From TrEMBL:
Organism: Novosphingobium tardum
Family matches, as SUPFAM superfamilies: Type II 3-dehydroquinate dehydratase (SSF52304)
Transmembrane regions listed in the UniProt entry: none
Gene it is expressed from: aroQ
InterPro entries: DHquinase_II, DHquinase_II_CS, DHquinase_II_sf
Active-site annotation: Y22 (proton acceptor), H100 (proton donor)
Name of the top EC class for this enzyme: lyase
PANTHER family attached to this UniProt entry: CATABOLIC 3-DEHYDROQUINASE
Residues that hold substrate according to the record: N74, H80, D87, L101, S102, R111
Protein purpose: Catalyzes a trans-dehydration via an enolate intermediate.
Protein name: 3-dehydroquinate dehydratase
Subunit record text: Homododecamer.
Length: 145
């Protein structure tokens, strides 16, 4: 069983980007931890990042077309702006779990609304890199693992 882990804009800079908010782990560090936990759960991790909205839309379609069992999605700032990503989540049957390192509800007002969260199965936010691991556990539950 395969899980897509999709990451949006600026998350390629994780580790050096505002570490007081996002921590010191890089996206590769997080991928390594997800792969280790995935191995234990019997789940294969397909981790990707793009700064381009349309890539995230294409990858959501691909998750469905290739039979992924769940998607973890940290759409970054697109969470707060993208009707296209909202519609893509609605367009597929694969469950999508929204992930954030920080807790957007405790930050600026422009982060309080999420088009992703409105369409997602659920949201994990505020636990740094651990948000991804908690979301993976939830995905395992959805996949019957
Ligand atoms: C983020 C929160 C978003 O508001 C922000 O635009 C990001 C990162 C997070 O993981 O905490 O780029 O998605």
């Amino acid at each position: 069983s395969r899980i897509f882990v999709l990451n949006g804009p600026n998350l390629n800079l994780l580790g050096s980007r505002e570490p007081e908010i996002y921590g010191h782990d890089t996206l590769d560090d997080i991928a390594g931890r997800l792969e280790d936990r995935g191995r234990e759960l019997g789940l294969e991790i397909d981790m990707r990042q793009s700064n381009h909205e349309g890539h995230l839309v294409d990858w959501l379609h691909e998750a469905q077309a290739t039979g992924a069992v769940a998607v973890l999605l940290n759409a970054g700032a697109f969470s707060h702006t993208s009707v296209a990503i909202h519609d893509a989540i609605k367009a597929i049957a694969v469950p999508v779990i929204e992930v954030h390192l920080s807790n957007p509800a405790a930050r600026e007002a422009f982060r309080h609304h999420s088009y992703v969260g409105m369409a997602a199965k659920g949201t994990v936010a505020g636990f740094g890199a651990d948000s991804y691991l908690v979301a993976l556990q939830a995905a395992a539950g959805l996949a019957g693992k």
